[in-house]
Structures are given as structure tokens and as C-alpha cells.
Amino acid sequence: MLRGCGAAMALPLMEAMVPLAKADQRLAKPPLRTGYFFMPNGVNEKRWRPEGNDEKYQLSPTLAPFKNVRDKLIVLENLTNQRTAGRNGHWPKVPAWLHGGFVKRNAGSDIDVGGISADQVMAAEIGNRTPLPSFELGLEPTRSGVDNAGGGFAMLYGSHLAWRDPHTPVPKEIVPQLAFDRLFRTASAGPVVSGFNPNQAAVTNALQRDDLSVLDAVSEDVWLLKGKISSADKVKLDEYMESVRAVEKRIENSLKPQKRWINQGRFDLPRPGPGIPPDHREHVRQMLDVLALAYWSDSTRISTFMIGDAQSTRRFEFLDGVNNIWHGLSHHHNDPANIAQYTKVIEWNVAQFASFCERLQSLKEGESNVLENSQLLFGCSIRDGNKHDIDDLPLILAGGGAGSIRSGRRIISPKKTPMCNLHMALLQRMGIKKDKFGDSNGVLKLS
Amino acid sequence: MSARLILLAALISGGAAQASAVDAKDAAFFKSEIRPLLSMYCLECHKEGKEVDFLKIKDLSQLHTQRGNLRSAVDQLRNRTMPPPKEDQPSEAERRQVADWLERVLRTTASEMGPYAGTVTARRLNRLEYDNTIRDLLGLQMKFSKTFPSDGGGGEGFDNNGETLYLPVILMERYLDAAEAIVDEAIIVPETRRKFTSADFEPTPDAPKSNLLKAGQEASVFFPVVMTAPHVLTLKAARVGEAEARILLKVDGIAAQSFVVPAGAEKAFEIQLRFFRGSHRLTFVAESGAATLAGIELADKPKATSPERREAHRRLLGSSSSASLAEKTPAERRAVASTLLQKFARLAFRMPVTEKDVGKNLALFDRSAARGENFETSMKLALRGILASPRFLFRAEQDHLQPGVRPLTDHELAVRLSYFLWNSTPDAELNALADAGKLNTPATLGAQLKRLLADPKADSFIQNFTEQWLGTKAVGDTVPLSPEAPDSKDIYSKEIGADMRKEAIALMNYLLRDDRSLLELISADYSFINDRLAEYYGVPGVKGKALRKVTLKDSHRGGVLGLGAVQMATSPGMRTSPVLRGAWVLTTLMGTPVPAPPANIPPLENAKTGKKKPSAFSIREKLEIHRADATCASCHNVIDPIGFSMEHFDRVGRWRDVDDKGKPISASGVTASGQAFRDLDEFKALLLTRKRDFARQMTSKLLGYSLGRSLVDRDDGTIEGIVDRLEAGDYKAQTLLREIILSTPFRNRNELTLVTVPVKKPAKAEKEAK
To answer: Which of A86, B155, B235, B357 is the most exposed place for a label (fewest CB within 10 A)?
Structure first.
């Protein structure tokens, strides 16, 4: 008996999923990808800031893991989100990270984060070019409830970077297998194979369109309900309808060829097992693998990744000498013993991102590689976890921006430069034209 | 989001403008103290004639004309969003005084506005409700919602709050997948077995014409799979010729397996494959040598049946099956399908349905039947349409398009009742009462409350409400080990955390089901512990793994303030936090909002006090330094003393007599109103002098939970009424539940807008034609 190939659908899926695209359906050059990587609870600022100016900068102890991709790194300094000042050290600062807006203190009746996150602005404009308009990943489940002791903020604020409008968060996927399947969701409606057998085309076609006909049926129910309910309810049903339409669009897109970038070769990534791996290191690795695959296969060009949610209580028991939870450690009270643990946790997480960058650099596409064709922002919404200060956010940008970014240097902006100036620069590179974004007062020069 | 704005506007402005019957003392105080303060800081922008002109009221009797704006003023003062940063700012004491005073006056005058029901947004089922509903509809216990993104909470702080139950794209995808998984589980479909011969090989130019596959040749078969399932491919192969025959099997064009056909007699092969629903291609490639392929068979391996699956199948299809309907005409089969679909839709949509309601589901049935799929498979597609429908996924109530308060229909009321107390769909008895129109009387509702509460299904309500209200849901998931006590790894364990969470639930369970006084949440001299937790707490003489009610010799462990889970939930850092504990008591237990801290407060560690190093101070000393600043003192004088009453509990909930630095603990303090207490017991006695505040908070939380919406200004009328009756009824727990169920907002709706939206169907997309 032969070894089962239960994973056959999962293995080198690309050939089946991406229909043998005709030459004119392929992009001539690799696309630019944008990724945002959020780390909660701040950094140890003494080990974060590098020495040396401009190109001559030296990696600081915290940034040391970037030694192999130093030339693709920019350390960004003096950027800030001034509208997140005060009120609470964590909750309002997360949603504002990607748009700089004023987040309402709110328990949930009228959630308002004061802006649309940069990734969702991109997704709305150019997301239709890939099977997934944007990809939201994370490692911790959304927190529910209201932090009464911490100022009365709904804690869901701290679990969402991506906001499709100021009132509606986009949740993140935290289970590797589900994230993986999401890339290939159309598989459940039948993979797109070339060369239909004329005798079976009708059956095939009908099967693949079953989901669409179910969606058709439920849309009718929406209209039936809509005649009878109040306008408050209509808001919720509109949300339902919008999601129905988005899924329909995705299925329809998958049934017709899209103009995509097709990488040659294989990307061997077994379909992850079910659930969340008990070992956190494995969890992180699998999620980043799925993201790398998403970029490589041009399944999406826009992503957010939450390395932890605000006030993450994860305990990194596999790190020697770390015995307290992350958020607890960030309130280090300037005690050297606490700071030592805090630093270990931060630097382990930074190293994961650094090795992700190395991985992207090793993925060749044409003459360049995936890292070269990316702009990846990594950082926090506060600087020191003990002070929750916001005047100089710890931020780094990795990637060559498809040739548009002069990387391998330190950019020290004037004090209190809006972080939105950076968002402007990244949006522009994705082809989004805006005169202003959030509280921007210019465009950060990255070239 | 314009609809959202309309709704808010209606919420704020609704209501008549009759004169308020405020008492003379308040009226005078408004004139002498409150209005002058408001004038000083707000008048310039909010005087008569401005867009928001709430200061045109000169006299408190005009209160009702500006309730919405005044409520907003309270929130903005606490949020520090007003006055704007560049304007003069009130002192911290003034900020609190105005906000607290206005809030109290608004609350006590709310009932003058008449009965108010409010509008509950169409709520989608949250994950728990989804799983419970499927369990009760079909008897399937699987957690089908496990792939859904987790629900964030809001409103009064619960994850059943309509406004924060979003429906993102990813969830819609998962609803479709879950619907498929549910029907796959529920409906038992006969095994399908597919045989392929050389006649089925796809007619490509190079394809073999017989079952002999020569070197380099490829033979493909192409077929649909209607259910995602493991499959078994069996075949017999025999080598032809001298060369070693190696056959590569491709699945959908991807190399999956290769196998060598040995010399000699025909050999049987069995290959395990897994196919998603959809069409697939199997390709046999002779990489080397040649071989004949015979007896190619692909069988799906249906999931093993179980009593649970058979029961679900019976509930959906009764005794109908493709076998029993084999002799019927297609029209007759369709009629059976229609009846079955109506029966299920009645339960899934939680209201009576007609044939028309399942029309499009029947169209799905037809679609599948037209492809020649069997009755069971066709029913599956039709049922997916029900399980993905907004009528199943949302609890929407009918609009009556008239202003004012309208009673819910009995079916809507049955749904509210069962989702409140069971987080699930109404059962047969509730449905029957609703069908007969007999549910909405106080006597019947009271009887149903008792029945529902006694049912084990109410466990989920008690757990959910308790853990979200007290904030103990995630306690103990990640364990903060104590650096000062390296052995704490051995003392504390995840099991202790789980016991603590259960202890909190057990306390609430006892109060609700045994109809105890709610004040025992503060005053209890007992707790629910097992041997492990008893040892941890230092309570002697408890044996056994199950939590049981233990009467305590000293009362500090009794009630919520003695719960280890509460002590841990309020200690996120490496030490206890009297500030967080104090704020927890105020906001969670007593409903006293704490203003947001101002920007740029220096950390306690930066307190400059002569030559002594900050780390040399105890937390009590640090906070005293903090309070020496008048700005900080205005709030921290209220918060900190309360927190200190719990200092005997360390950050992992153990009792202690000395702090981290070895100094004896003092749990004494003086409240902001000047009442001194020596320890936690005396502090609890002080809390019990504020029974009404506690009862009001408990009522608000439970009312907000039961309604699944945020409470607004006018709900205060309902709440004060319930608190009156609680006070008269010894604060009995079931009195509270009963009063909530009988309250105006629970049994009625207010319609906020009178906009009729014309019902028009979207143009039918011609997807089939494409």
C-alpha cells in the first residue's frame, strides 16, 4: 500500500490553483507587497536606537538579528501618532497605528477609531487584483469586554489593526491551517483545472457555482427581511450583504483568470495541522510561512500581522529566565531584573521578523526577490512599555519597495513628525493617490 | 454609515419636553454651582443660538429639553474630549463634580420621560449561540464555530452586544464552510463508488486506447466529487514487458504518488486520497516500462454513522430517503423536500414560515437533483441555503413603522428569553406557547423563567455573564510566575486558575438558582472551593476535587472581593495594583465611572522624593506621593483606599501578611467620603451601606446582557424601577431576573425612525448564463 497523499491538495498547490496562465495574463514584473507587523508593549529603548548616521548606522543590540538583511532595513525615528496621547497606554493606540486617528473611548455602542487603516485603504482600491484583497493574521484571539479599570475602552480596539471603516474592524486569522486554506478557499468549490472535458463541463461548472447559488438564495432572504425591519437593523444587514458580495466576487474572480505575477518553481509548504500549535515558536513560524506563501503566490499584496494584541499576556516560557507575562514585564518599573526579561521577549520577537525578511530575500522572483519587492513596516504604538510614550515610536521598514526605496540607513525625522507621513509614502508606492492621510503634513522621503 | 448617524440622532433627541419635577435642593444647586461652572468652561461655544446650545437652559426644570446633550457633556468631561485642549480646563475636582452631579440628576429624572423600550439591533449569533443553536436544532455537539473569528464584546461589556457583532468577509466564508460541514455531519449519504475503464480515459491524442499504458503515455479520468471526504482508489496493475514499470499518479495535475509494478501476476494497489468538493482529475503516467491497469475504482469513505448522526438525520429528513422515494415522480420528491424544508426553516428561522419562505431553497434542491444527485445530497444543498441565511444567523425583530413602544410578538419574545437564559434557540415548549400566543403574560413568563433557569442549558448563561461581568474569563491562562518566589511555579498551576474561574461561576450559580440575596456577592461568609483551591487559599479541612460550598471561619474569602480570580484579574504586573483593584470595585461592582487618566502622567517610579530611591518605597508610599499632587488626588483619593482593602491578597490570589519587601500588610484606609476602615471586612460593611448603588450596577449589567445593546439615558427609568423592587424584595436574585424579563425594554421595542425603504429585489444576476 502506498503512503496516503491526504496532503496532496495541500502540497505544491500552486500549479493547480493558478491556472496555467497565458502569457498575456501574467504581469511583466513582480508586484509590490505591503506588510504591517505590529508588536505590543513597546521596546527597551536603550537597546533599540542604533549608532551612526545614515548609511553608516550600526545595528543596535535589539536589531542585531537583521545582520543578513541590514542593507534592506531602514530605522525610522521621531515618528509619532499625537492623537493617541494619554487616556490609555494601549487600547486606542492600536487602531490608530495605521491611520493616526482619534479613537473614541467607547464600550461598544458606537465604536469609532477615527479613520480607515492604510492597509484597508489599499485593499479597497487595488485589492481586487489578487484573490485575497488583504490578509489579516495574528497570534491571539480577539479580546472581548470593556477595560473599565483602564479607562473604559472596548478591548476589541486592542485586537484590530485593520479597520475597513471607522466603525468596523477586520478580524485576523490566528489558526495556521485556516489561514492556509483561506489562500486557497476556492479549492472547496473545485480547483481550477485547465482542459475541461466537454462531457463534464456542465457538471463541473455547476458544482463550482453551488456556493454562488447559495449566496444568491440568502441574498433573497436579506431583501425579505429588509422590508420589515428598522433602519438600525438595516445597517447590520448591509454589513451582511457587503460580505456576501465580497465572497461572490472572490469566487467569480477565481473562475476567471486574473492578471497576476506567477513565480516559477515550487513553494513546498505542507498544509498545517488543525488548531493552534501548543509551542508558540511553531505557531509563529507557521503563520509567517503562510504569509510568505501568500506573497510568493501573489495571493495577496497587502497584509497585517499582529505579533501580539495590546497588553498581550503571553508568557515566553521557552526563553530562559523569563517567568512573567509580556504586558506585566513591560511595566518593568525600571527594575533591571524585569528589564532583562522584557528585553529577551522583545528581541526574540524582533528576531522572528528578521528571519522572515531573510526568508523573503531567499525567494527569488525574476532578477530580484520577494523582500526587494516588499515594503514591510514593523514596530510598536508606544516606545517604552513602562512609560507608554508616543513621541518616538520604535519603527523599522524592511524591503526595497520594488526599487523605490533607498534602504540600509537610518532616517531621523524632525521631532514629532506624524507617522502618517510614512503611511503617505507607503500608500503612494502602492499607487494610491492622496493629498493627506490622517494627520499627515507631508510625505516621508524614502527614496 | 449614514444610517448609523440617523439612529444616534434619534436616540439623543427623542422624548417630550415637559418640565422636570426636580427637587428644590437640586434646582438651587444647579443655579448656584453647576451652571456657573458649565458657563465658565462651555458657554462660549454652547450658548443659545449655537449648534449645540445646551446652555440655553437656565433652570433645571428645563432639563428634559437637553437630556441628550447633557449626557454627552458627562461623557465628554470624563473622556477629556471637552473642553477642547486649547481652551481653559476645569480642575480635576470640578470635572468630577459636574459629571457626577449631572449624571445623578439625569438618572433620577429619567422615568419622568415615560416608558422606554429602545431598539435592539439585529444581532447575529455569536460563536457560543451558534454552537448551542446547532446543538439544539440537530443534536450535534461539535463546535462548528471554531473556525469563526472570535467575537469582540461591547455595549455593557458582553460578547452578545449587537452593535459589536460584526460580519466581516472572512466570517461569511466560514458560514458557508460551516453550513457545509453541518449538513455533511447531519445527513448520512450512501457511499458512492465510481468505476473507470479505458473508455473513460480522456480522449487526448496521446491517450491509450486500451487499458495498456505504454512508456511515456498518460491516461486521465475526470470526475466530480460532491462531498469533501477521504476516498480510496483501488486498482490492479500488471507489468507488460521486461522493463521495470513505474507508474506516477497525479492528482489534479500534481504528482502525488508513484508506484512500481513488479513482474509477475497482477497486483492490487490501494491508495488513500482526500478530495474537496469539486471536480478532479486523476492521471496515470507510465514513467518507465508499460503496464495494464484494470479494476480502477474510486469510493468515498463516508464518515462512520453514530447515534448522534442518525438522530440529526432523522430530525432533518424523517424517514424519507432516496430509497424510500425511488418509486416517486420528481414532482412528488420535490413536494416531500418542500415539507421537510419548511419544517426545518420554522425552527431555524425561529418563526412560522410558509412555502414561499423556502422557495429559493427548493430551487437549490432542484439544482442538485437536475445533476442527477440523490435525494439526500440535494437536500444538503437546500439546507445550506437555510444555514447561511440571515434569517438563521441574525435575530431580527419586525418593525412596526409606528412611533412609540410596541410589544414584541410572542415568537420574538420566546427568542429573547431563550437566548438570554440559554444562549440558544427556543425549545418546543416555548415555541408552542408562542404559536398559541400565550407567552406574554407575567404569570407565564415567570413560570418559564423558573423552568429555563433550572435547565442545565442555563449553565452557559451563568458562566458567560459572570466571567464577562467580573472580567475573570481569561484569568490564569498565562501565569505570571513570581520572581521573588521562585517556587511559585510549584504553588500556582493552570488548574488553580481554572478552579478560581469556576469558583466565581459557582458563586453566581448558587445565588441565581437558589434565589439568594444578591448582597451575598459582597457579604458571603462562604465560597465554593475544592481541596486544591482550599490548600492554595489556606482553608483547612476541605477534601475532594469537586467544588463545594464551604463556610469560612473568617469572611475575607467570601464574596467577589475574596475571589482569587478577581485578585488575579486586577494584577497584570509583577505586584498588586491597588489602583486597578480600586477602579475594579468602583466600575465593575458599584457602577461608579472612573475618569480617564490625563495625558503624560509620570510613572510612579519617577516620583522624586529626596534621596531615597524609588524602589525603596512600598506601593502604599508611592501612591501617597502620587496623591500629594492635587490633580492626581482628586481621583486617586477615591480609588486607592479601596484597592488597599485587598492588599492581603497577593497578585496570584493568595493570602499574605507581609508584602514583597517583607513589610506587614495594612489593609486599612479612609474612603473619599471620610469613612475609615481597618480591613477588608470593615470595607465590605461600608460597601453594604451603598446597597442601592450595587443593586443598580448589577441591574444595569444584567439588563444590558439580556438586551444585547448599550444602555442609554432613558433606560435609567427602567433601572431605577427595578432597583426599587429589589430593595423591597430583599435583593433576591430571581426577583432581578423576573423584573428584567417583565421590564418594558425586554418585552417591547421602540421604533426610532419611520423611514420605509421600498422593498426591491436586486436584478437577478445571470450567473448561470455565463
So the answer is: A86
Asked if B391 reaches chain A (Cβ–Cβ under 8 Å), the answer is yes
Provide the shortest C-alpha distance from residue B121 to chain A (in Å). 5
SS3 A417: strand
Task: List the single residue in A with minimal CA-CA distance to B169.
Answer: A243
Contact flag A213-B367 (C-beta cutoff 8 Å): yes
Write phi, then psi, for B270 (nearest 5 degrees).
Answer: -130, 125
User: How far is Cα B297 from Cα B236, in angstroms, rounded to an integer?
Assistant: 10
- The partner residue sitting opposite A170, judged by closest CB among B80, B168, B222, is B168
First to last CA, chain A: 59
Of B8, B228, B481, the CB nearest to A323: B481
- Quickly tell me which residue has 510561512 as its cell: A289
Query: What single letter denotes the amino acid at residue B238?
Result: A
Q: Which residue in this structure is represented by grid cell 467607547?
A: A106
A201 touches chain B (CB under 8 A): no
Cα atoms in the 13 Å half-sphere on the side-chain side of B697: 22
What amino acid occupies position B360? K
Take residue B428 and report the three cell numbers written for it.
Answer: 418546543
Q: Along chain B (770 residues), what's the average pLDDT of each consecutive run of 10 residues? A: 35 49 86 90 85 84 83 79 81 87 87 84 93 97 91 85 89 93 92 88 82 90 82 92 88 78 88 79 89 92 90 96 92 96 97 94 93 90 96 87 84 98 98 97 98 98 96 77 53 86 98 97 96 92 94 87 93 83 92 73 58 68 78 82 93 86 88 89 93 94 94 90 94 97 94 44 39
Residue A296 neighbours by CB under 8 Å, 6+ apart: A263, A267, A363, A365, A370
Cα B513 to Cα B462: distance, rounded to the nearest angstrom: 10
Cα Rg for chain B, rounded, in angstroms?
A: 34
Taking the Cβ of residue A433 and every Cβ of chain B, the question of whether any pair is shorter than 8 Å is answered with no
Give the helix/strand (H/E) hosting B747.
helix B744-747
DSSP string for residues in B98-140: HHHHHHHHHHHHGGGG------PPPEE--HHHHHHHHHHHH--
Residue A235: strand, helix, or coil: helix
At CA B497, angle to CA B493 and CA B501, rounded to 5?
165
Note whether A157 and A95 are within 8 A (CB): yes
**Strand ranges (E), B290-350:** 290-300
Residue B434 half-sphere exposure toward CB, CA atoms < 13 A: 24
Rounded to an integer, what distance in angstroms lies between the CA atom of residue B736 and that of residue B748?
Answer: 18
Predicted complex ipTM exceeds 0.90: no
Cell of A111: 465604536
- Within 13 A of B726's CA, how many CA atoms are on the CB side? 30
* Phi, then psi, of B739 in degrees rounded to 5: -65, -35
Which residue, among B152, B11, B133, B123, has the nearest Cα to B708 in the 3D structure?
A: B123
- How many Å separate Cα B592 from the centre of its chain? 24
Cα separation, B171 vs A178, whole angstroms:
12
Q: B226-248 burial string, b = 16+ CB within 10 Å, else e?
A: bbbbebebebbbbbbeeeebbbb
Report the Cα B619 to chain-centroid distance in Å.
36
Candidates A231, A234, A345: best to mutate against B (most CBs of B within 10 A) is A231
Quick one: pLDDT at residue B575?
A: 79
Contact yes or no for A189/A208 (Cβ under 8 A): yes
Q: What SS3 state is found at B236?
A: strand
Rounded to whole angstroms, the Cα distance separating B215 from B192 reads 32
Cell 536606537 locates to A49
